[in-house]
Amino acid sequence: MLFDLPDDDTLYAALCVRDKSYEDQAFVGVTSTGIFCRLSCPAPTAHRKNCTFYSTIAACFEAGYRPCKRCDPTGAIAAEAPQLQHLLEVLEKDPARRWREADVEKMGYDLSTTRRLFKRHFGMTFLEMARLSRLRQGFTELSRGGRVIDAQVEAGFESASAFREYFTQVTGLRPSDLNGQGGIALRCRDTPVGPMIIAADQTHLHLLEFVDRRALPREMQKLHRACRGNMGFDSTPITEKTEQQLTEFFAGKRPVFDLPLALHGTEFTKRVWRALCDIPAGQTCSYAQLAQMIENPTAIRAVARANGTNQIAIVIPCHRVIGADGSLTGYGGGLWRKQKLIEVERAYRAVQ
């Protein structure tokens, strides 16, 4: 798991000598090629600046990398379920294809079995992986200043209108809504738990959300209204600081975020969000305990609702709230992400 891994410099040293001791425990994503490998891969070693390390194959896929054909990092998965390997291969060969359930059935695969296997290994279905990959391609093109037609082609959509429709479905906004300058800047950032959208102005972080979260369209629309449409694809010092601190967090080097936050909510929800930030990394609490923390012990349901409306994921750590019996409870980013974030933070608990 990620929290058991050494620092990136140690992992890069292992990559340079093709150390097999990290087999199936650590993987490297190479930004210059878009490929992820085992640390023992026989391919020439990439430059340090182009290497990002991950603890799971799922994290590599979610960060947008495809598996190396030389070291075959998904081979272990193929041994358990060859259909996973086959579907990953056809997705790599035709990333622009609009996959449907009927396409999976035509290949002779049972839909429920396929869905279950992908959920177990990657935290998402095959169709969700395909859609997310296509949207990320288009989002990246727009972030570079490309036209909608360029983003459409990059994402593999048949028409600009189809791309606009899907972009709007996921983000709640049309690409043409995002041409503001000097207001709130948007950037799509890959993380070990999937791509996230960062929305920040020159002084505050307004939103940090998973691209595939169902509440994202509503949150984006609300933010768009709040800034009177002055929102576009760009970067600010707060964007860069957020990206840096996320990297440090996942590397086990930052238990506490130091970012100026713009909290868009009622006074009650803001109290709950501030209380969440008081929960130390590596620790968890129940909704009842969180209600006690804000000195309103009877407001358990209201606390749960406020927890669910948090739109600055990870930084405001709503993933640290669990059921009274110790079980994982609802999380807008998905329970698999909640589990991974808690696992990441075990390293922080060990040194407290």
Concise description?
The chain is of the alpha/beta class and 352 residues long. Helix content is 44%, strand content 11%. The strands form 3 sheets. The protein has a 4-stranded mixed sheet with strand order 3-1-2-4. It has a 4-stranded mixed sheet with strand order 7-6-5-8, with helices on both faces. Strands 9-10 form a two-stranded parallel sheet.
List its traits:
single chain, alpha/beta, DNA Methylphosphotriester Repair Domain, Arc Repressor Mutant, subunit A, 3 domains, four-stranded mixed beta sheet, 10 strands
Describe this structure as you would to a colleague:
It contains 16 helices and 10 strands. It is of the alpha/beta class. It has a 4-stranded mixed beta sheet. The protein has a 4-stranded mixed beta sheet with strand order 7-6-5-8, sandwiched between helices. A hairpin with a 4-residue loop joins strand 6 and strand 7 (205-210). The relative contact order is 0.09. The mean pLDDT is 82.
Task: Pick out the low-confidence regions.
Answer: none
Q: What proportion strand?
A: 5-15%
User: Largest sheet, order of strands side by side?
Assistant: 3-1-2-4
How many domains? The number is 3
CATH fold naming of the largest domain: Arc Repressor Mutant, subunit A
Indicate the multimeric state: single chain
SSE-based structural type: alpha/beta
Along the chain, the helix and strand elements come as HEEEHEHHHHHHHEEEHEHHEHHEHH
Topology:
Elements: H1 8-16, E1 27-30, E2 35-38, E3 51-54, H2 57-62, E4 66-67, H3 75-80, H4 82-93, H5 101-106, H6 111-122, H7 126-143, H8 148-155, H9 160-171, E5 184-189, E6 196-200, E7 205-210, H10 216-226, E8 231-233, H11 237-250, H12 267-276, E9 285-286, H13 287-293, H14 300-308, E10 321-322, H15 335-344, H16 346-351
Parallel strand pairs: 2-4, 5-8, 9-10
Antiparallel strand pairs: 1-2, 1-3, 5-6, 6-7
